[in-house]
């Protein structure tokens, strides 16, 4: 009987996509996915270490798994991803019941190591640089096990060449490596042939995509245009672009390529220039706002989201107030807000003499949250009365009779579908927005524009 595996993913979209690809590799190795962790023969934890609570979550989960494994001694546990890359063999020191530890550069080794561990005991394989044989081949992405059939992630670049003082990502994911443009276009074409309509391009700094290929200027704008030319791909999103590298050619491509969505996630991190400089972000608040204005001028009705860190070492009340001011001026649709967490090996972790009192930080965090939530609600309420074309995700999680769909700005819309076709993932529907809530919109369905099935039938006929 085929072994059953269960993957639990922590962290960002890149990790989610790595998990999909790993699932594809395990299936190719003869295993079967299962939703049920307790009955799995192999449990994979694909980990994150961006903040300390990500570490704590993983070791907490491993603690629970010790009991599960005691009841089911045949179970194997693999720990993959960023936290493995950081802690290496240390994972086994803290959780001796783990069977396999694999880092960020060799996901493709997991299946083989699981087999080896059965006879030879625990296996730790961490590489210091990406596996030259790579596991980003387009055909592997094609075999990825995806939850949804109409949307897909595509990793365009791994690693990061920046040196943000708080961030552990470059230490665990290594330097930037861009995948060849032709491979990416081929992958997008294969995905489109399988019914994928929306692609989200992933990288730590997508704006610098291709800089390592040309040794000169980035090719991100070129990539947007090339993926935009792929038949059947109606929507392109990307995350994250670094503000310092957002260039006019990228903004022009966003404006000119129909498929590129009206959505920009532009991480601000802080509003005070002193803090931005200590963070080594490479821009001032004024420059950030200029870049944002450039994007908004070119792409009308752009939805803008951001990341902000509160409590960076040395952040004064005045610095924090500047963050509130800049956030208000930027008029974000929403923001992911984080409390600074010192990460081992990063420059900011050495500034312990400037760490901020946790009570002050949580007070600032709450104040920022209030400002951000209010701004988001105003944006949502302003959309009432507008007609938006949405891409259906399927039934909403809370009520299976209500459809959940995304606008071009990436906002979630709920509406009552006219029939089963208007509830089908991948359908395009026009809705009129009737209500704006803090985290979603409610709409009324107008026309059903087209469904994936209709499109496929048309393709067969032509
Ligand atoms: N490459 C992406 C960010 C990836 S990490 C980019 O530059 O946009 C996602 C977010 O986590 C960051 O934007 C930052 O806001 C937050 N973050 C990263 N390291 C952190 C730390 N040590 N403490 C708190 N938040 C952090
Ligand atoms: Fe981290 Fe900065 Fe790179 Fe983003 S750009 S991954 S925040 S070092
Ligand atoms: Fe976490 Fe690694 Fe992503 S540290 S945020 S999973 S790149």
Task: Please sum up the structure shown.
The protein has 462 residues and is an alpha/beta fold. It is built from 16 helices and 19 strands. Bound molecules: S-adenosyl-L-homocysteine (SAH), iron/sulfur cluster and FE3-S4 cluster (F3S).
How would you describe this structure to a colleague?
- The protein contains 16 helices and 19 strands.
- Strand 5, helix 5 and strand 6 form a beta-alpha-beta unit.
- A six-stranded parallel beta sheet has the order 2-1-3-4-5-6, sandwiched between helices.
- The radius of gyration is 23 Å and the shape is globular.
- The chain has 462 residues and is an alpha/beta fold.
- It starts with a strand and ends with a helix.
- FE3-S4 cluster binds next to helix 1 and helix 7.
- The site of FE3-S4 cluster has 11 residues, from helix 1 and helix 7.
Largest sheet entry: 6 strands, parallel
Rg from C-alpha positions?
23 Å
N-to-C CA distance: 44 Å
Question: What's the arrangement of strands in the largest beta sheet?
Answer: 2-1-3-4-5-6
Determine the fraction of residues in helical runs and give it as a percent range.
25-40%
* Hetero groups: S-adenosyl-L-homocysteine, iron/sulfur cluster, FE3-S4 cluster
The SS-based structural class is alpha/beta
The CATH architecture of the largest domain would be 3-Layer(aba) Sandwich
Sum up the overall morphology in one term: globular
Q: Could you report the average pLDDT, rounded to the nearest whole number?
A: 93
Q: Could you give the count of β-strands?
A: 19
Q: Tally the helices: what do you get? A: 16
Kindly identify the CATH topology of the largest domain.
Answer: Rossmann fold
What is the CATH first-level class name of the largest domain?
A: Alpha Beta
CATH level-four homologous superfamily name of the largest domain: Methylthiotransferase, N-terminal domain
Tell me the fraction of residues in β-strands, as a range.
15-25%
Count of domain modules: 4
Low-pLDDT runs: 456-462
């Amino acid at each position: 009987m085929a072994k059953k595996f269960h993957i639990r993913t922590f962290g960002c979209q890149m990790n989610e996509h790595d998990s999909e690809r790993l699932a594809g590799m395990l299936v190719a190795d003869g295993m079967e996915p299962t939703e049920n962790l307790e009955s799995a023969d192999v449990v994979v934890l694909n980990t994150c270490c961006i903040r300390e609570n990500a570490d704590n979550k993983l070791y907490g989960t491993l603690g629970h798994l010790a009991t599960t494994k005691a009841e089911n001694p045949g179970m194997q546990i693999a720990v993959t991803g960023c936290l493995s890359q950081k802690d290496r063999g240390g994972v086994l020191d803290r959780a001796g019941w783990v069977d396999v530890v694999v880092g960020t550069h060799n996901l493709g080794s997991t299946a083989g190591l699981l087999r080896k561990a059965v006879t030879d005991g625990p296996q730790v394989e961490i590489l210091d640089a990406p596996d030259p044989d790579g596991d980003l081949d387009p055909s592997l992405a094609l075999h990825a096990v995806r939850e949804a059939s109409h949307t897909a992630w595509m990793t365009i670049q791994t690693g990061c060449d920046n040196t943000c003082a708080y961030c552990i990502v470059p230490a665990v994911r290594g330097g930037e490596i861009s995948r060849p443009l032709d491979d990416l276009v081929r992958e997008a074409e294969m995905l489109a042939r399988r019914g994928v309509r929306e692609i989200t391009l992933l990288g730590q700094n997508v704006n610098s995509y291709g800089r390592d290929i040309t040794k000169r200027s980035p090719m991100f704008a070129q990539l947007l245009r090339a993926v935009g030319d792929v038949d059947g791909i109606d929507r392109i999103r990307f995350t994250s672009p670094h503000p310092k590298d957002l260039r006019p050619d990228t903004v022009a491509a966003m404006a000119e390529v129909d498929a590129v969505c009206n959505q920009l996630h532009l991480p601000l991190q802080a509003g005070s220039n002193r803090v931005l400089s200590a963070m080594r972000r490479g821009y001032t608040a004024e420059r950030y706002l200029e870049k944002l204005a450039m994007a908004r001028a070119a792409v009308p009705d752009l939805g803008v989201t951001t990341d902000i860190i509160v409590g960076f070492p040395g952040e004064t009340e005045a610095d924090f107030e500047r963050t509130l001011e800049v956030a208000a001026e930027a008029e974000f649709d929403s923001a992911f807000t984080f409390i600074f967490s010192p990460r081992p090996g990063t420059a900011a972790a050495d500034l312990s003499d400037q760490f901020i009192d946790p009570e002050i930080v949580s007070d600032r965090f709450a104040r920022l949250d209030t400002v951000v939530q209010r701004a988001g609600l105003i944006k949502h309420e302003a959309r009432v009365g507008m007609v938006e074309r949405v891409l259906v995700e399927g039934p909403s999680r809370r009520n299976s009779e209500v459809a959940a769909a995304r606008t071009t700005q990436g906002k979630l819309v709920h509406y009552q579908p006219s029939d089963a076709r208007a509830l089908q993932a991948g359908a395009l529907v026009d809705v009129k927005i009737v209500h704006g809530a803090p985290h979603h919109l409610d709409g009324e369905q107008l026309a059903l524009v087209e469904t994936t099935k209709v499109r496929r039938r048309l393709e067969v006929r032509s």
